[in-house]
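Researcher: Structure for this, please.
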Amino acid sequence: MNIPNRLTIIRILLVPVVVAVYLCMDPTLCVIDETSGLALRDVIAFVIFAVASITDFFDGMLARKNNWITSFGKFADPIADKMLVNTVLILMVYFHKANVIAVLLMIARDLIVDGLRMSAANSGEVVSAGIFGKLKTVLQMFALVFLLLKDWPFVYMGIRMDQILLWAATAASLYSGLIYFNQLKKYVLETM
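Model: Predicted structure, token format:
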């Protein structure tokens, strides 16, 4: 197994770890910042999320640079990404930090795009992520960083950066979903 595939597996294994930390640690234990309520639990969850997110960057870079692209990587990498991001988004909804509508729209978009990609793949068409799909991912990652860190340091400026980025990610998600749909609808609609 090559290094990018190992990094993908590490990312998958870190998903239940971040969930366990967030659900099992006392949120009042070792409060670091009174204004935001930032506690040790939040920082540990953020660090695990950050490490998992960084593995996504490195597995893709190493796979392209060294021509280590494998069928397993093509299959597992997007699943690992969605497992990580969607799980933490759902955690944020559960703890009333993220708007449920925004999260549902992003998850629904992912399901639709994945279905479109599978239909295209059955016809021999491989569809890589477009610029707006990549923008969606970056915005989601930054939104989750600020959600996990309870909007620190923007809480001192009265700016809800976590919510701004969450809704920007939702908009980018929906827009990129429309692009994918327009590009791939022929594969779904051809048999109607």
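Researcher: Any notable elements?
Model: Helices lie at 3-24, 40-65, 71-94, 100-122, 131-148, 161-189. The longest strand covers residues 31-33.
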